Amino acid sequence: MRVEFEAELWLWEARRDDSWTFVSLPIDASDEIRELTGGQRRGFGSVRVEVTVGLTTWRTSIFPDSKSGAYVLPVKRAVRKAQSIEPGDVVKLAVELV
After folding, report:
1. Residues 63, 70: contact at Cβ < 8 Å?
2. What InterPro entries has UniProt attached to this entry (predicted)?
3. Residue closest to 55 by CA, chosen among 26, 18, 90, 92
4. Which of 23, 10, 26 is nearest to 52 (CA)?
5. Beta pairing partners, 5
6. Which domains does the chain show, CATH number per domain?
7. Is the pLDDT of residue 97 over 70?
8. Is residue 43 exposed (0-12), middle (13-18) or buried (19+ Cβ within 10 Å)?
9. Cα gap 90→7, rounded to integer Å
10. Would you say 8 and 86 are in contact if contact means Cβ atoms under 8 Å apart?
11. Fewer CB in 10 Å around end: N or C, the chain?
């Protein structure tokens, strides 16, 4: 499964710096991922994915957020720097299950 979407980068509220920056996947895509991976999730309910933002592609995990019902995707500093993006920016992403 591959999903392409736009989302705003946001900071984890427990941190004051930009070391924990995320995007939330759309709810409908999150529901579909949950259905597809029902018994195959890893620690903390994580799911392995390959992500593309701009010209940068990397592998990571997405995590379920119990508050919103969506999966959240961490966007590491190296990616943000390479793509000149920061918290508050809206970015186009492609996320594919691995």
Report:
1. no
2. AF2212/PG0164-like_sf (IPR037079), DUF1905 (IPR015018)
3. 92
4. 23
5. 93
6. 2-97 (2.40.30.100)
7. yes
8. exposed
9. 5
10. no
11. C
CA distance 27 to 89: 20
Residue type, 57: T
Q: Where are the alpha helices (DSSP H) in the chain?
A: 27-36, 77-82
Residues 83, 52 contacting (CB under 8 angstroms): no
* 48 in Cβ contact with 63 (< 8 Å): no
DSSP conformation class of 26: P
CA distances (Å), 67 to each of 4, 6, 63, 71, 97, in order? 23, 20, 12, 10, 22
**Residue 23 burial (CB count, 10 A):** 24
Six-digit token pair at 81?
A: 């720097």
